[in-house]
Amino acid sequence: MTQPNEPSELRPAPAPEDRPADAARSDDGPGAEVVSIETARAGRHPYPPNVPTDQIDPVTGTPVLQGEIVRVDTPGEIDRDWLADLAEKAKVRRRIVPLWLRSRRDAVDTLKWVSMHYAYVGGYQLTRTPKYAAKLAFRSPRGLARLVGGMVKWTFDLEGEPVRLAAVQKADPENYLKLSRQRDARVRLRVWMAGLSLVTLLIAGILVATAATPVQWGALAVALALLGTLGRPADRPLIDRAVIPTTVEKLTSDIVVRALTAISVSGINAKNPDIRFVAPITRDGPGWRADIDLPYGVTVADVMDKRDRMASALRRPLGCIWPEGDSAIHEGRLILWVGDKDLSKTNVRSPLLKAAGHDVFKGIPFGADPRGRAVVVPIIQHNILIGSQPGQGKTASVRVLASGAALDPTAEMWIHELKGTGDLDPHEVNCHRYVSGIEDEAIGYAADSLTLLRKEVMRRAAALKALPSDLCPDKRVTRQIADRRSLRLHPLIAIFDECQNLFSHPEFGDKAGDDAEFIIKLGRALGVVLVLATQRPDKDSLPTGVSANVSIRFCLRVGGQIENDMILGTSAYKNGIRATVFQPGADAGIGYLVGATPMPKVVRTSYLDTPATQHIANRANALRTGAGTLSGHAVGDRPEATGPASDLLADILAVVAPSEAKIWSEVVVARLAELRPEVYGPWMDLEADARAAQLTTALKPYGVKTGQVWGTPETGGKGANRRGITRDDITTAITQRDGKRGSGTAS
Prior knowledge:
Elements: E1 24-25, E2 33-34, H1 37-43, H2 82-89, H3 104-127, H4 129-155, H5 161-169, H6 173-210, H7 213-230, H8 253-262, E3 276-277, E4 282-283, E5 287-293, H9 300-304, H10 307-314, E6 321-325, E7 333-339, E8 364-368, E9 374-377, E10 384-387, H11 394-406, E11 412-417, E12 433-436, H12 440-466, H13 479-482, E13 492-497, H14 500-503, H15 509-522, E14 528-534, H16 544-547, E15 552-555, H17 561-568, E16 590-594, E17 601-605, H18 610-627, H19 648-655, E18 662-664, H20 665-675, H21 677-680, H22 688-699, E19 707-711, E20 720-726, H23 727-746
Parallel strand pairs: 10-14, 10-15, 11-12, 11-13, 13-14
Antiparallel strand pairs: 1-2, 3-5, 4-5, 5-7, 6-7, 8-9, 8-17, 15-16, 16-17, 18-20, 19-20
Helix pairs in contact: 4-7, 5-6, 8-10, 11-18, 12-15, 19-23, 20-22
């Protein structure tokens, strides 16, 4: 049987009686036939005639080979829950209260600006009152002539004369007579009205002439003002403009569609762009905002890739165009903000310049977004990573955070400026620990700070655990706890600028990376904050354990996707958060801030030069002196060492006998605590597993690995496999270390 989908060329030839009448026999062979191709095509049935009619879909005319007919798209309206529909519509609501009234600061700033604007306009116009009076007096004769001429024309209906003359020229006496009667009726009424007006003016003139002098001058001023206004030329306004209007073109839907179709994004068709505006284009701060649904399949990242071309299409500077997405709705929701002024030419003034003090628990004023809204970076319970290419404002961003922390007298500051240029020197007078330099001594000092911070985190964890639940219900440092200095749980902000010089150091780098990762993971809730800044964000100079666990990231201009994702997080570049769009030099101080706000945001940081920073540091020093919170380096103390002089490898050999080839880590820790309790004693405060992990971490910089070893408890008992060390590994590590030191001295 012929299958329904079998090509017609393979079907059996029609019987002779069914052949077309114009078919002719061929001389090429028996039974051969030549058939006209058009006739053959016209006679073909789209489906074999052997398919029963009851198996043909009545709607589409196609056969149903098996089963029942199923319609993919159900005709008619779909039954939907009205409450669900209402909830869906209510997801995006227009704000009842305008943006500038949603915060006290924005409202005050807006009202202040409006008041100053109109005060300026009023003052400008007031000083030009004599000029305007002279203009009116000069134009009043022309105004009088226009007034008299207009009254004459109106009284005698002279404006209708051309129509009456046209009737005469057309030899239309009936129409002319009709217009003449209409004119006579108008003139009779208007003559009386004009006469009454003249009489009224005459009486008013007599009254003014007999009135007091001030009244006469007032009437003269009014008359000159009215006549001068009537005599004004059409192209010369009386009042000058106090403010020249901006030449920025108003953003409209046509302009936006034109720009989006001009940037050649795949999926946006120039003839049928399918771009939908979900809300009216409105003013939003110093610019225009457009909320747009891009065509199906087009993402915000596709548009952000072409930001420079969009700036060209909108005829605006690149620093005025800031597209961003709203992935909370969908990946195609574009929020296009077009500013009036280039962000790179905007100076953001820091409120810290005039602040009498600050509370780090409320965050630190960091800068402003393109719309001019203040951006505050939370400090407590966060760690911060800042990265960029050289010269893009990284250290200036660190300086803002350091200034905010310095103005809180309860916050302890540790600053390590590992570039050696002294950019953070003004805050040296407020620091418990401070170093500036790139030499090995400075790097070692910074590494010691991380070691001390690690111990401080462990101490704080125990202290916080011991606090009553009514004082510390969430087991984290609060302002109430920080104010109790006896608890020593105040905020501790440790800044490491150019941290790549520390983490990539051949001697201190590995251990410093482990300590930093430990502090970042555990110190967040304990009031210990790390601020790391680097200009070389790669896996060698920025450990992945560090970059993966910081909660707030600020990335200024970087060169590529890898550096972008090292600072802003995995897939940031793919999601359209790209610090590569900033221009080198021109966009210094502008970067993407992630983690400090609900959505990633472009931020222009406040700029504090050295004199401004010194001014803040001096004020902070006075606050700390008055509160009695200066300590360490700020009061001239010697650098705090990481502990008494000790050698971990040598100490292990001292407590592990040569006969003990392998030994449990927890046993080694117990013996080390007995040998040097001031150094290793805190390790015994940890759980057994944590002690072993602590020893593993301490040995890692020396290349010594721990593993499962067989042993028995020193107090007796059954043997077991536990984490431990091999004594030969310790001796090998000492030999290699001493060999490196010897070669370094010889060189």
